[in-house]
Amino acid sequence: MTDISPLQWRKSSYSNGSGGNCIEMAELKCGETAVRDSKDPGGPVVGVSHRAWVDFVGAVRDGLLG
To answer: Where would I find the DUF397 domain in this sequence (predicted)?
Structure first.
C-alpha cells in the first residue's frame, strides 16, 4: 500500500468551494493517479492508471459523462 499522507492533492479549477460534488486527485510516484472525495479527505482513495485518468478527464471535458 502507498502512503498517501505526503501527497499534493488538487481540486478542479472549476470547483467553486461551496461544498459541491468535487473530487481531488494526486499523482503517485509509481505513475498512477489517486482520487478521493474532497468532502471526505480521510475516506477511501481510489488508484487508477494515468491513462484511465486522462481518459476520464477527457470524457468529462467533452460532455460524455452526465
So the answer is: 7-61
